[in-house]
Every structure is written in C-alpha cells, then in structure tokens.
Amino acid sequence: MLSHLARRLTASLLILLGVTLITFCLTFLIPADPVRMIAGRSATPETVASIRHQLGLDRPLPVQYASYVGKLVQGDMGRSYVQKTEVATLIRSRLPATLLLMAGAIFFELLIGMPAGVFAATRRGRPADRGIMILSFAGVSTPQFVLGLLLLYVFAYLLGWFPLSGYGTPAHLVLPALTLGVAGGGWYSRMMRSSMVEVLRHDYIRTARAKGLSERGVVLVHGLRNAVLPLIAMIGLDIGIFMSGAVVVESVFGWPGIGQLAWQAIQRLDIPIIMGVTLVAAVAIVIGNLLADLVTPLIDPRIRLR
Amino acid sequence: MNRLYMTAAAALVAAATALPAAAEEAKRGGTMVVAYKDDISTFDPAIGYDWQNWSMIKSLFDGLMDYKPGTTDLIPDLAESYAISADGLTYTFKLRPGVKFHNGRAMTAADVKYSIERAVNPATQSPGQGFFASIKGFDEMAGGGAVELAGVTTPDDSTVVIELSRPDATFLHVAAINFGFAVPKEEVEKYGPDFGRNPVGTGAYKMTEWTLGQRVVFERNADYYRPDAPYLDKIVFEVGQDPTVALLRLQRGEVDVLGDPIPSAQFVEVVNDPANKDLIVEGGLLHTGYVTMNVTQPPFDSKLVRQAVNMAINKDRILRIVNNRGVAANQPLPPAMPAYDTDYKGYAFDPAKAKALLAEAGHADGFATELYVMNTDPNPRIAQAIQQDLAEIGVKAEVKSLAQSVVIAAGGDGTAPMIWSGGMAWIADFPDPSNFYGPILGCGGAVPGGWNWAKYCNEALDAKAAAADAMVDPAKAAERLDLWRSIYIELMDDAPWAPVFNEVRFAMHSARIGGDKILFADPIHIPVHYDYVYAKDAQ
Description:
The complex is a heterodimer. Chain A is an all-alpha fold. Helix content of chain A is 77%, strand content 0%. Chain A is built from 14 helices and no strands. Chain A has helices at 2-29, 34-39, 45-54, 61-73, 87-122, 127-141, 144-158, 170-200, 203-210, 215-227, 229-243, 247-253, 258-268, 271-299. In chain A, helix 1 (2-29) packs antiparallel against helix 14 (271-299) and helix 11 packs antiparallel against helix 14. Chain B is α+β, with helices and mostly antiparallel strands. The radius of gyration of chain B is 23 Å and the shape is globular. Chain B starts with 10 loop residues before the first helix and ends with a strand. Chain B is built from 17 helices and 21 strands. The interface between A and B is large, with 54 and 53 residues.
C-alpha cells in the first residue's frame, strides 16, 4: 500500500511538472505582450524595455522556466503583474471560499443525483424513470448563468429566503451550491441509474431477494454499495474541476472564489496568476483522483491496490 | 485609460460652477455602498490606471492640483498657490500648511518631490511615467542614469519648484494627474511592492480594510485639510458583484451606487422607469469610439479609401446597439473637450458616394480585409454592424473578435488593417485636446508597440501640435485651442480614423445618496465624486 502510494505521488509530481511546462509554453504563445499592458499607452520604448528587464521577461524561455520552477518549490508563485501582490497570497485568500463552494456543490450533486438515480433504476422503463431522466437532461443542459440568476431572482429577490449574492454565512452558500449541484446532479443521477441497473442484474441480488430481504434492503444495502463505485471516481474528478473555479456561478453570486480570480487574470493577461491558478487546479485534480482511488477499496474490498 | 468614464465638461457644467452646494442639506456621517464587478487592482497612485481605481485613488491621495468638483477646471489642491515664470519654464508651488498623511506625519515639499520622482523612476514601472517628460532631467532619470529629478527642487519645506526643459501648456494638468500624488517615503519603503494594498496618503479617506475579492472599506480622514469634505463617514466597496445582481441589490436598498455601467439588457427598462427618474444622472464622457485604418497597409494607404469608409458607417444604427448611450462623432475630439469644432460637419453617411470614392481609388469591385474587435459585449455586435455597412459598399471585412490584450498587440504591431476601438477606446487622461493627439495620432505613437494603430505620421501636424503645446501664455489660450481645432480638422481630411460615437454615461444611485447632480456626472470622478456626496439619512 505504501509503495503504491509512493509510486502514485512520484507520478503525480511528474504530472504537475508537466502541467507547469505546458502552461508556461502556452502563455508565451499568446500573441499579446503583458509588458505593454503594464507599461500603458504613454510609455516610451525605453520604459517598456526597462519593465521587461525588471520582470525578467527578456531572458531566454528555458531560463525563465527554470527560474519559475525554482521559486515554485520554495513556495513563491511570483507576483501579479497588475496588482503587484504575491500570487500565493491572492490564491490563498480565495481558497476557503472555493473549498466551501466545492463541498456544497458536491453535497447537492449527491443529494439530488443519488436518490434520483436509485429511484429511476428501480422503476426502470416506467414513467417515473423517463421523467427523472428528462429532468436530469434538463439539469445538465441548463446554462449555469440562467439557472443561477433564476434561483437568485425567485428565492432571493422575490421571496427573500436567501441573501442576494455574497459570501459569509451558510445562507449565502445555498443558492450557488444548488446551481452547481443541479447540473452535476443530472450527471450523477444518470451514472447512478445505469450503475444500479447493472448491479441489480447480478446473481447476488437475486440471492438476497430469495433470502427474504425487503426490496429496500436489497437495493440500499447490497445494490447501492456496489453501484456507488463509479460515482466515487466522479467525485474525485469533481473535486479537481471545482477547485479550478466555477467562474459563472461565482460571477452571478459574487462568490470570492478562484474562478473570479482566474477570469480577471485572463482578461488582464496577468500571467503569474494564470499559472498559479492552473497549478492549483492541477494539484486539486491529482489529489482528487488519488483520494478516489484510495477510497474505492474501502468500499469494495475486492479491489486491491496494485 | 481603458474603460475610464470621464464626464465631458459641457458648457452647462462649466457655467454651474459653485462647489457642490445644498450645504444646508448635506450632513456629515453615514455609509455608502458601491458595487463593482472586478476586485480593485491597486491603490498605488503611481501605478493605478484603470477606470475603477482612478477616482478611488483621488480620494486616498492628493496632488499639487485638482479639478473643481463636477468640472474640468483646474484648482490648486496640495498647493495653496502657484506662480509660472514669464517664459513658462518654471512653476513655483507654495504648499498649504497643515496637511498630514494618514499615518500622522506632516506632509512637506520633500514628499512631493519624492512622489514625482517615484513615478519617473523606472523601477516603479509606472504607466504614467511619460506624462512627466517635460520636466528637466526626465531623460536622465527615466533612462536609469540619475537617481533624482534635477528639475524638481525644494528650496524650503513648503515650496516646490519645477523646471521644465520645454514650455508645456498641459503641465498644470500633469500636476493634477494621479501618478504624481503625494506618498510618504517611509510607508512605501516599508511595504515595498505591497504599498498598493496598503495605501497611505493625504486624502479625504483612508483605507481601513481590504478583504481580497470581497470588500474594501474607506473611512473618513479626521485630519483632512478641507473643512467641508468629505461628508460620508464610510464607503464600502463590494467587489465581485455581477452588474445585473448589483442592480437588483440597489433596488432592494442593499447597494447605493453602481460602479459598473447599468447592464445593457436592463438599461431601457431601468431608465424609462419613472421611479428611477431622480436616481439616474446622465453625463458626457471625454471619450471617442473610432475605427482605425492602418495607413501603411494597402488599400488603406489611399486617402480616398479611408474617406469612403468614413462615409459608409451608419452611426445611428450603432448608437441603437448601445441603447443610445452616446452621440454620433464626426471628429477625433469629443464634444466636451475644449477645441471641439461645433461647426464641422465631417463625412455624411452616404454609401453611394463611398462606392464612388472606392471606384475612383481603383477598387470598383471592393476588396477583402479584417476588422479586429475586443470580444466583450457590445463590441462584437458593433463590429458586425460595421461589417454590414462595409459590405454595402463592397468591402468584405472579416470580424476578428479577440481578447483585449491580443487586439492591442495586433494594433501595436501593425498587423491589424482595421480595428474598432470599443473597450480600448481613447478616453482623455486629462481634459486638454493635446491628450488625444500624441500617443494615438502623432508620429511618436506610430512605432511598433505604439498606440497609434493607424500608424499615421504627419510631420507637419506634429510640428503644429508641438507649437500649440508650447503656447503657455494664458493670454494665448484661445489661440492655442484654435490651433488644436485646426489640427484635428486637417487630420480628418486624411481620415486615418473613422470616428463613430462619443460615449455618454448614466450613473445610478439610491435615493438616500444626495449631492449636486454634477457630482454624479463629474468628468474626472467616476462613478461619483466620493468626497462630496452625502447620505441623506445621516444622523
């Protein structure tokens, strides 16, 4: 188990290094010049050259990359071109909100997706099944901006049950997490349904029924435990996806997460922040997958980590 | 400045001068909440250069000169008085006594010198460095050779003498610009690059809180040297607020002022709602939106082709796309700018004549080209309208909708044949006609990386511009404006640009915020003049 972990960690580090390399190269392929953006429109060519030199952007690319990685291992992600604040500070300030939103979103995804999927699977082919699948399709297809604004308008503005955007209390978390949860819930319900349908076909289910277990017992105890595995993998992926920022939802609800930071940085060509956020997202995806892989054998002992 | 909204000093504003009165109504106290979409980039006056932080910096810091609230008239600020030598090369500023920084220390002439030098120092990376180019010793310091600006001297603690290397009629505007605002050296050195997050100035407000991505709080500076300002005790800037949601919150009373423009989708409904009649103030802007044509790239090297483009664009239709938040433009200067030519007719909308001109230029069958545009709404829609207008005269323009920085780079490199300037459009840094010339129409800007995207270089006009800016004698002010007027009209004959419209802004505030209308239509302070508005419900 430990050797497996060690191997996974080494592989993860190599993946992350690869991510930094690719992102770094991509930012230099952009046909725009961050130095000109910083220098502004009244700058003389001498000023532009001076700024370029101060930022170290006149050095050869491999040197810049090596310097970046060198600082990275010391925890220094550089400073924002626009704000001059340390990137690490900016990202750290956004982490709590992002983590909270991620947790809330996954909670709602499961809350909506799991029961819906199980329900649909046990009534396969019947109207309830069709209905749930259509709803899940709608959930997945609705643009987050539309759904978010709709929920905001109805539940916050008209009914006043929740605050009109912002951050701070659990009440602030409900609507944004729900918006993300509806779309994800749609996916989860489908995945749950097909996984459950597959599981319910097996012999051990028939055995359980033959033994006299109630239908609920059969489904929830024996069926669910086996059917939930693909969802675990998806949750692992979701952790990564949400950590890279839910830009649209954060915009609508004024949620101070990483997505807003990334979006602003992209608009302003603030490369240090873009690289920092990409790296954080990559780390999150790697960790998410690792967690999913570690949790799986706990649920299904037949799966051994090799 | 990229999306700066500065009000035009329309003649009516210049006439209604008195400092925002209603002094009998205005009470001290209260809090105002302003909503913005983006987090603030920085409060460092030497660096901050976007439409969001420009006015906030004016409330945290002060400079030698300022503008009378709601107008574009220069008044002394940190300077109590000033004198200009006969040859226009020496400015002597007498500082007012009793000015303190937010950290308690008294401000002296040395601070003013330090602050201006800081803006010129290449290590600061200030985007405003170039504004101080007329000060003696600028080239040495900007080039990295000198550690101080020889032209700025402080004979005593309350006097600053600035010597110029050439007469500069815009210098008083430079003395009022953010980049030179007074900063305390010890705080700058203490915070280093983080000074922008920990601003310490002499302004009416001091920053007491900045929760990244969420909120910035300003509190009244009790030691502020003006007795009558500011009125509010506290201003809370809530950032990360989507403009549509901010509007809902304003209607609910949770937000007092919208920092971003009213969203297009709700604009018509909001403006026509009778309940909002007193809450929305319209103000002109020192802005022009235009199409640039690269005069070095055929077929735009032909004057006839450029004039044809001018005649082909249906400006009224484009104004409808922006909910009529603007007026049609026929020259580079906006109506509010001194030296605007009210009699000039420009190129009338005449597609038939445009086609004839194209034929005369040898392009009877039209030609294909590219129109670059910034990809945020409404600019792509405007570009499409222009594309259709051009198609009418046989010009097939492919619209390239890209990120702002990419379009700016294409313009600077000269690879873009046509650019619609929306979202990047020129807004005056200060209310003087010369500001619309140098970087965007002068030879100096027509270099790689420059902002003269038309790459237009007319040496004769450059000489006239330099002559106009050398006219420092106040008695010659009218003559100077006449000269500038003629420069721009002459330029329109060459037509490197097709001016399309001048933006008008609509500031929306809640009912509990009071103040003279001009404070909400202020050319320099957007969205409102933070120092002079007040809360009607203050105790």
